[in-house]
Amino acid sequence: MSSTLIGVIGIVLMVGVFMTRMPVAYVMATVGFLGFTVMASLNAGLNLLAKDFYEVFSSYGLTTIPLFILMGQLAFNSGISSKLYETGYKFLGHKKGGLAIATVSACTAFGAVCGSSAATAATMATVGLPEMKKFQYGDELAAGSVASGGGLGMIMPPSVVLIVYGILTEQSIGKLFMAGILPALLVTVLFIITIMIWCHFVPDQGPRGRVYSWKERFKSLGGMGETLIVFALVMGGLFFGLFTPTEAAAVGVMGVLGVAVIRRQISWQRFVDALYETLKTSCMVMMLVAGATVFGKFLAVTRIPYDIASWIGGFDLPPILILGMVVFVYFIGGCFMDSLALVMLTVPIFFPLVLGLGYDPIWFGIIIVMVTEMGVITPPVGINVYVVYGVARGLPGGGMPLESIFKGIAPFMVAVLVGTIILAIFPQIILVLPNLMY
Amino acid sequence: MESFRKMLSFISDKLKVVGAVFLFGMAVLTCLDVIGRLFKHPIFGSVELVSFMGVIAVACSLPFTHMEGGHIGVELVVRKFSRKIRDTIKLCTEVLSLILFSLVTWKMFEYCIKVKNSGELSMNLQLPEYGVIFLLGCGFVILTIAIAYSILKTISDLSKI
By Cβ atoms counted within 10 A, which residue in A90, A108, A153, B53 is the most buried? Predict the structure, then answer.
């Protein structure tokens, strides 16, 4: 049997076992181990298991993950999100669809301290949905803005997906973070335009809220100060090469914790909850990375990624068309799989291909995040949709049907798609900040 | 079965606390190193210590992440089946997981002995790295036991259908 055939069988077997709901990390490790055993020997496969797990868990580069997750969890548990929302609300709430615009803006700001899309959606749903319900916003706009806005948490640095992409492809995490800032702002603007157009044609979806005086508005800006300072410290340190990503994350953790303690916004219990939740998420991510590493080693010995790259290259298609096909695979995959698992699974396969086409690896990382961002809101898996659905169910006034949430997401999907096309046409938007770095 | 569950929860809860201490320790130590560097007194070997703390934090969180269903999986197909088929599939995947992590645990201890016998020490602080590998192996032991408990529970659920 040829090594390529073994590789293909491995991939098919893995996708089949995925469907059993066995944890993705366990599946990748199992199939990777079995494949490596077939390709090399049982002893080599067994040694690979222990060594890869230890090497992943003890990698200093990967310590960035738990620390950035902790930073986001502390921000989540200390109510920083409410302050951000309040500022947006006071400035924009009186406009048509203003509360939804405030929600999306607050999502971007919260994404600056939180690296997870689901955590951003959960936070903003808790803060934003009751307000939008109070002002009789349509379920579609309310849920759509929160679920889609949550995805901004993944593009706006720090981002767990970008960290993992950086580690898998040996790219600078600092540069990837810098590269994510302008695209996140671009998507925010596109979301705001979407909301404005939507409310222009269907005003019932986003009625006007209360008008606040300018004095009250400017006073609320104080609530944003600490987030800006922490974000500036973390990103500034990375930008000027003062910190490694791990150090930036640790400084961010202490910054958010310091702000929360000084403002008396976090109790001991919530601090402990943040630590436990971080442990759980980090363990999940580290196991995924370990599983993907074992599977990646198997793929590497089968030479499948290189075979695919040369096979597709042989068609002599224009690079943009091949890229379009890769993006399409991500989009379809994102409908069925968690974004992080998808990135881990596909990056080892597609990365050599994209590099071979002459695309910038940093630029490709952001494009992947943009596309998988669509994945977190598309049916049937769309994790953010279920997060918003779950939060809405627990709110006074009852929940909202899943169909309304999916309907509400459609216009935002178009906005992300437009954003991705803009970034594909103008790669400078992504590359300008990382190119300015030290 | 009940006493097994209680014992497992007790161990998993205690490990969670230890994991949380090491997690926060990573943040504190890294920050102290950054501050120390500002005053030209960085903490020697902090990178090694943070890496080791990271291993211990993950090792401690392995059992409870599994027990609380913290790992992501694709539910799309399975949820369409009847409970009996769902539980049967679950049993099969749990047995597969048990085999995988029994092997990982076994090889982890073997790797630990290999590193110990080679006399390998960490680069800066000269710490015995095999100690950390041993702790990770212990984490995998508890995870394997937790998976074994899940298997017993699934069998008991299946027998009730």
Answer: A153
Q: Which residues contact A340 (CB under 8 A, 6 or more apart)?
A: A160, A161, A164, A285, A288, B72
Does pLDDT of B94 surpass 90? yes
B27:A254 CB<8 A:
yes
Q: How many CA atoms lie within 13 A of A189 on its CB side?
A: 9
Average pLDDT score over residue span B90-119: 95
Distance from CA of A31 to the nearest CA of B (A): 10
Whether residues A50 and B108 touch (CB distance < 8 A) is answered with: yes
Query: Which residues in chain B are contacts of A384 at CB distance < 8 A?
Result: none
For the stretch A392-435, pLDDT in tens is: 877 666 678 888 888 899 999 999 999 999 999 999 999 999 99
Could you identify the residue written with the tokens 């000084």?
A262
Q: Which residues of A touch B132 (CB under 8 A)?
A: 58
What is the model's pLDDT at position A218?
86
> Which residue in A372, A352, A357, A309 sits closest to A164, CA to CA?
A372
A181-198 pLDDT tens trace = 999 999 999 999 999 999
CB contacts, 8 Å: B23 with chain A: 66, 70, 275, 278-279, 282
Question: Comparing C-alpha atoms, which of B67, B147, B10, B56 is closest to residue A280?
Answer: B67
Distance CA A141, CA A132 (A): 9
Determine contact, residues A141/A100, Cβ cutoff 8 Å.
yes
Contacts of B76 in chain A (CB under 8 A): 19, 336, 380-381
Residue at token pair 């919260």: A110
Cβ of residue B7 closer than 8 Å to a chain A Cβ = no
Q: Using a CB–CB cutoff of 8 Å, tell me whether B51 touches chain A.
A: yes
Q: Do A282 and B61 make contact, defined as CB atoms within 8 angstroms?
A: yes
Asked if A106 and A81 count as a contact pair (C-beta separation under 8 A), the reply is: yes
Condensed to tens digits (0 to 9), the pLDDT of residues A15-60 reads: 888 888 899 889 999 999 999 999 999 999 998 889 999 999 998 8
Write down the ipTM of this complex: 0.94
pLDDT tens profile B32-79? 999 999 898 999 999 999 999 999 999 999 999 999 988 877 777 888
Out of A196-200, A379-383, B75-79, B107-111, least confident range? A379-383
Report how far residue B95's alpha carbon sits from residue B108's, in angstroms, rounded to the nearest whole number.
20
Q: pLDDT at residue A308 above 70?
A: yes
Contact yes or no for A276 and B16 at CB 8 A: yes
Residue B121: phi and psi, rounded to 5, are -120, 160
With 0-12 / 13-18 / 19 or more C-beta atoms within 10 angstroms meaning exposed / middle / buried, residue A104 is buried
Query: What whole-number distance in Å separates Cα of residue A148 and Cα of residue A409?
Result: 7
DSSP states of A113-125 as a string? T---HHHHHHHHH
pLDDT at A396: 67
Listed residue (B54, B80, B103) closest to A65, CA to CA:
B54
Nearest to B115 by CA among B135, B100, B98: B135
**A334-354 b/e (C-beta count within 10 Å ≥ 16 → b):** bbbbbbbbbbbbbbbbbbbbb
Q: Can you tell me which residue has the tokens 């394997």?
A: B144
| Structure confidence at residue B101 (pLDDT) | 96
